[in-house]
C-alpha cells in the first residue's frame, strides 16, 4: 500500500508540523502533539478554553478546528489511538486560565480514560475543568445502551457551539451546558464502501466483496454493525435518516443542521449527491434544514464512505452555529438554497531514582526484559486479532510499551515496588489507548501494595497481583465474562494466590496461574463482548479470542520461563 509519509513512527508529528506551517492562528507544543490557538492573552485574562482531540487519522479533525470561536487546543494521539494523559494535561495547562477548560470527548474507552484522568489532574492543580462526552452514533441503538454509543463526526457541531459560547465570554458552567445540550440533540451514522489502511500496518483492516458495504461503522477502520449489498446514494441516505428517525430523533416540524461528512476518500461529487438526497429526504418529511455542509470534516484515513449528522437547533443554537470562527477547517456559510432550480505539559514523574538495587529489583528487571521481548515478538499475532474485533492497533501498542520498558535505566529497579512503578509510568507514556491506563493502573496499585517491602514473599506478590487486577477492573468496569483482558488476568491472579495458600511451591503455583490465564483468554472466543470497541460488533466478535486477553497470556507465559 503506497503512502505519502516519511516514517510510520513520525507520521503524526510530521502531519501536525504541516498543519501549523499553514495555520498562522495555531502553534504546536514543543514536547507534545498538541496544537494550541496562537496569540492567547495572559492566563488571568483568558476566556474558557475548549479542548478536544483523540487519535490521529481523522484529519482535518482535530487540529483543523483550532481557532477563535471554536477549539482552543487539539490533542493528537497516534493513529486511531487516544492521546496520553500527559499530552492532554499539557494541552489544558497551555490553554486554560482561571476561567477553566471544557474538554469535549468522543465516547471511546481510551479517550475517556486519558482525557478524564488529565482533567482530574488539572483540577488537582486548581484548574476548573468540565467534561462533555459525545455519543452520537445511532447505528448502535440496538447493540449497546445509549450511554455507550460511539462519538463520531457530529462531535464537530458540539465543538462549534461550545467554541462560540466560550468566545462570547460565558462561564465554564454555561459553556458546558450548551455543549451538553448540543450533544443530546445530535445523531449520526456512517456507511463505508471499503476499509482503510493504517500507516503502521500497511494493509486494509478488512476486505469487502465487490458489491458489499459496511453499515453503521465508527471512525477507526472497524467493521460496522452489519454488512449488506451496495445500493444507490438515495437508498443509503434514506437508510441512515430512517435509522435516526427510528431512534426518535426526527419528526415533522423539527429544525436541524446537517453535516454530510466524507470518511477520507469519498470524492466531492459523491458527497454532493448524498447531500442532495439528505436535504430532499428531510424536507420531504417536513423537517426544516437550517444549515447544511458537505465535505471531509472528520475522516477515517483513506476510507471510502460517508456519515450524516443531524442536530436539532433553535434560534439561540443557530446563532452559535453562525458565529464567526478562525478555525481553518470549519466550512463557513451553510445556508440552504430554497430556490434550487430556475423557475463545514508534562506530568511530573512518579518514579524516583533509587541509589541501590535490591535482589528483588534485579529479578524484576530480568523478568521485565523477557516479558517486553515476548510482547514485541507477538506484534503480528496481536495486530491480526485486534484487526478482527477492534481497530488493529494492539500489536503496535504492546510493541511501543515493550520498547519503552526495555529503555528503562537499571536504576529504575531499585526494589520491587520502585520497579513496578517505573514500568507503569513507562507504559502510561508509551501507550495512549486503553492498554496504557489499564496496565499503568494495575502496576501502580501493585507497587503501592509492596511499598517498603525489600524482599516480597510469594504470598505478598500474589496479594499485589490480585489487587492490581481489581484496580484494572475498577477503572474500566470490566468483570469476568465481559470478554476483556480481565478474563485472563482474574483467573491467573486468583489461581496463583489460591495455589500458594494450598501449599504448592512457587513454581508450581505460577504454572497453574499461567494455565488458568491461557484458558481464560481462550474462553473469550465464545463470549459476546460487553465493553470496548468489540462490543459494537455484538455476535460478530464471537469465534475470535480477545486481543487484550491473549496479550496477558503471552506475558504470563513469558514470566514462567524466567
Concise account of the structure shown:
By secondary structure, the protein is an alpha/beta fold. It is built from 17 helices and 12 strands.
Can you characterise this structure?
The chain has 562 residues and is α/β, with parallel strands linked by helices. Helix content is 43%, strand content 13%. It contains 17 helices and twelve strands. Helix 13 runs antiparallel to helix 14 (458-476). The two termini are 40 Å apart.
Question: What coarse outline follows from CA principal-axis ratios?
Answer: globular
CATH superfamily of the largest domain: DhaL domain
Number of strands: 12
Provide the helix percentage: 40-55%
Q: How far is it from the N-terminal to the C-terminal residue, by CA?
A: 40 Å
* Biggest β-sheet: strands ordered side by side in the sheet: 1-2-4-3-5-6
What is the CATH class of the largest domain? Answer: Mainly Alpha
Query: How many discrete structural domains?
Result: 3
- Average pLDDT works out at 92
Order of H and E elements = HEEEEHEHEHHEEEHEHEEHHHHHHHHHH
Computed Rg: 24 Å
- Per DSSP, the total helix count is 17
Q: Which blocks of ≥5 consecutive residues have pLDDT under 50?
A: 347-354
Structural class: alpha/beta
CATH architecture type of the largest domain:
Alpha Horseshoe
Fill in the CATH topology of the largest domain: Serine Threonine Protein Phosphatase 5, Tetratricopeptide repeat
Largest sheet: 6 strands, mixed
- Indicate the proportion of strand residues: 5-15%
